Amino acid sequence: MILPPPCPAPLGCSSRRELEAQTGSTMGGTQTRVTQLDPDLVERTGFSPEQINNLHKRFQQLSENKETISRESLNRIPALANNPIRSQIIEAFFDKRNQHGSEVGSLEEITFEQFLMVMSHFRPPTVEMTDEEKEAVRREKLRFLFNMHDTNGDGTITLAEYRKVVEELLSKCGTIGQEAAKEITDAAMLEVASTNVPHMGPEDFYEGITFEHFEQILKGLEMESRMHIRFLDTATVHCGKS
Amino acid sequence: MPARMSSRAPAGFCRSLPELGLLLLLVFVLLQGSVFPHGADASADTSHHGGDGCSSTHVKEINRTKKAFPVLSFEYEHIKTPFEVSIWVLFASLMKLGFHLVPRLSSIVPESCLLIVVGLLVGGLSKLIGDTELPKLDSKNFFLVLLPPIILDAGYFLPIRPFMENLGTILMFAVVGTLWNAFFIGSLLFAVCQIPAAGLTHLGLLSCLLFGSIISAVDPVAVLAVFEEIHINELLHILVFGESLLNDAVTVVLYHLFEEFSVFGPVTVLDGFLGVISFLVVALGGVLVGAIYGIVAAFTSRFTSHMRVIEPLFVFVYSYIAYLSAELFHLSGIMALIACGAVMRPYVEANISHKSHTTIKYFLKMWSSVSETLIFILLGVATVGGPHNWNWIFVTATVFLCLVARVMGVVGLTFIINKFRIVKLTTKDQFIVAYGGLRGAIAFSLGFLLEHEDEDMKHIFLTAIITVIFFTVFVQGMTIKPLVELLAVKKKQEAKRSINEEIHIQFLDHLLTGIEDICGHYGHHHWKDKLNRFNRKYVKKCLIAGERSKEPQLIAFYHKLEFKQAIQLVESGAGGKLSSALPSTVSIQNIQPKKPPPAPETRERVLPQLPKAREEEIRKILRSNLQRTRQRLRSYNRHTLVADPFEDGFSDLLKKQKMFELEKKIKEMNNYLSVPAATSDSPTLRRARLASDPQSYNVKPDADGVPTIQVELASPQSPDSVNIVNIVDEVKRDREKDEDMGLTMKPPSAPSKQGAEEDAKDQQKLMRCLSDPGPSADEGEDDPFLP
């Protein structure tokens, strides 16, 4: 446990830093490290200082006070054990594509900042957003989903990748699920192909769902408002439960 | 507005002669039906019950003396009630039918308005004739007969997901909003009544509050009628509609509370407290009663597999009993019905047959639409027939206050709600929610039920209620559609949910649950997941018979979809599989990654070309060959699962035989092949060329057990000679892949790095097209699957 260095003199503190330091001080201990991290973390991730503090507390709990978090730490979360798509969720945290950068590939361990970056995909949209901003948020969220499906990162979701997804979804249902997964994926892929490329000759081949097609099929789902979770604003995180 | 309407509706009818005739006939029949009673009564009296007049005894005596058997007797009284009810139902249905035959009419004016106008016309005509025997909108019949089908229809087909997601907002509007409306309207009306000019100073505060509680509730029937037509987005629809359903509990409690107090003296704090308790009892009790009956109904449906024909009946009867049971204790019957329908539906649907499901759907829709039609027509009739006491000040104040209270309530509550909502309600949304607050027949019936010592008072109330109903239904109901267009409020997506959307909804649910778990706080998704798991583990096992209880939602959805498409196929008279039901030329072949995709577009390519006829023939062979193997894969569904191992062995045999045949054919054809150069080439040939390229060969998994044909590459010097062996080889390769990979293909390799080396690649392509083993640049390990 690194002891919190005292906050510099108020004059040196930006107002945001002050706020962070204040909220952090109520929780004691390690929170001030957040303020030590990137001061523009708030801007880059869009989280409020309180939310960052809460997430940081959780991060430390998961990583057992280390700087980085590994796949095993996430795998150990008991509540995740029943999640059929657990491996994909965990993998998404270690995917470089979800770090708002242009890099591809996967990481072995992620820092708190990277953890925050992934989490920031799940922020709810705000009411002040213009339509263009909303559209951007929607695309970004869809891109996150797309990346989860497109495991090899080639820009298309192939039949095999799609089937993997469905199989995972049905993985709790035994063999019936696995058999059905094939049919469902075939039907789903066929649907994508026929909505996006309505006329194909018998020789043509639909290679997989591109991002544009992905957007097209999920148009009706209003991802921008659907894909979010409620991040706690207050300092009360029920972290003790897991 | 009503006057304008009444002049418009006939004008619409005059446009086409048959409809005019129909209308006239109907009015005639109806008047006959309603005029008849007198004549019928008279004749019945004289022939049977009469004892006072000499004529009747005379008839009797004649009967006795002649002893003639009455060949034809006439006894209207015997059939009067059911006959008149049937005539009314028929009339209402024909009216509904008529509106949709008139072009454009139904797109301009909501049906509810037209029906009220028809009711007004009928009422007016009968008044002109001087007959007052028209049926009134009897409160008892309304609540016990007309209302339940509409509510059950709404409850059974309630979109549970958006409803639960917005439950907080809905409850806020339904409970707090209705309370606010009732007290605001009631108390301000009391203030208005104190104005001496109104002449209503004798009206007490409690009477005003009672009136406020009646008039404040948004009416589900009116809302449904209007909102069904404007196709507003799901969120707004469920907000307004949900509010109209759930405010019933508030209305019931307030109504009974104020009615009690307006008769029996002053209110104490204790009474207020008891009122709150009563509200909770009424609302939660209603839900509980409904849920219990719903579970019992679901449990009953578990055992109906041997008696399919009466399955739908259970749904109706249990729901109706739930409604009546709730009404028995003055609980909220509407909430009981909603809960009953919503609780039983998922389990019942899994248990009953598809036909029963269709029956339930159609019966509910039919009943509710007939009920709705009758309600509106009778409302119109009652308006003309009923006693009125038009008090300008009171009526104007009521309409004005209703509007003001609604707007203030919605805006104020939204301000609070938006603090907690993730998806905020915009100003547009607020406007539509406020504007969609239509009042309807429930308020009218409640007003009718009033037992005020002062008849005059009741009439004033009724007149004001009718005015508010007419104002909201006509003015708001008719303008809401243009306003929705004008404000560009988001509309509902009409499309049915696709399998992809279902997959992604499920995926998202699990994803969000997972993210919440990683965040370490337990939000909505976490608890929803818990509930789902409990439902799957225990409840479904009890309530759903057989294997279907274990069926996960996604598979159930898929099977439903599959079934629907199969039905469509059968109906359209075409045979075949699921894939051909889709309205496009895309078939399962197009998505199965069994053959390499067309090679990249190359403009400068000069490639040999087969003559059209030959090419066509080769293509045909290739295609039939490919398709046949695929057909086997296509039939690979749950019905043929058992036969699969055998099929594999069988197909091996088939494969060999086919291979042999194909080779023979191509050998024959080879004699004719002499190919001139051409500028473009077909995808088939392109693939053939590509397949002959050793560079792209290497990356493909080579199948063992099949003799590989060594390809003699055409030399660059003679590009016009193509070896047909390439094609044979390609066919084989395709088939190989069919057999080997089937539906479990390997993931494609890394993406091609396009962009900067575009020029270099073109160069390579050209070289490769000339069947030269291309340079082993990065293209080498590129997958030929990729364009």
Gyration radius from CA atoms of chain A, angstroms: 21 Å
Low-confidence regions of chain B: 1-17, 25-57, 574-583, 594-610, 627-651, 671-725, 736-787
Q: Provide the domain count of chain A.
A: 2
What's the CATH H-level homologous superfamily of the largest domain in chain A? EF-hand
Number of beta strands of chain B: 2
Along the chain, the helix and strand elements of chain A come as HHHHEHHEHHEHHEHH
Descriptive account of the structure:
The complex is a heterodimer of chains A (242) and B (787). Chain A is mainly alpha-helical and 242 residues long. Chain A has two domains: 85 residues, Orthogonal Bundle (Recoverin, domain 1); 101 residues, Recoverin, domain 1. Chain A is built from twelve helices and four strands. In chain A, the strands form two sheets. Chain A has a two-stranded antiparallel ribbon with strand order 1-2. A two-stranded antiparallel ribbon of chain A has the order 3-4. In chain A, helix 6 packs across helix 8. Chain B has 787 residues and is an all-alpha fold. Among the domains of chain B are: 349 residues, Na+/H+ antiporter like fold (Up-down Bundle); 55 residues, no CATH class. Helices cover 70% and strands 1% of the residues of chain B. A two-stranded antiparallel sheet of chain B has the order 1-2. In chain B, helix 2 crosses helix 3 and helix 19 packs antiparallel against helix 20. The radius of gyration of chain B is 37 Å and the shape is globular. Chains A and B meet through helix 4, helix 6, helix 9 and helix 10 of A and helix 21, helix 22, helix 23, helix 24 and helix 25 of B.
Properties at a glance:
heterodimer; A: 242 residues; Recoverin, domain 1; 2 domains; two-stranded antiparallel sheet; 4 strands; 51% helix; disordered N terminus; disordered C terminus; B: mainly alpha; 30 helices; 2 strands; sodium:proton antiporter activity (chain B); calmodulin binding (chain B); palmitate (chain B); calmodulin-binding (chain B)
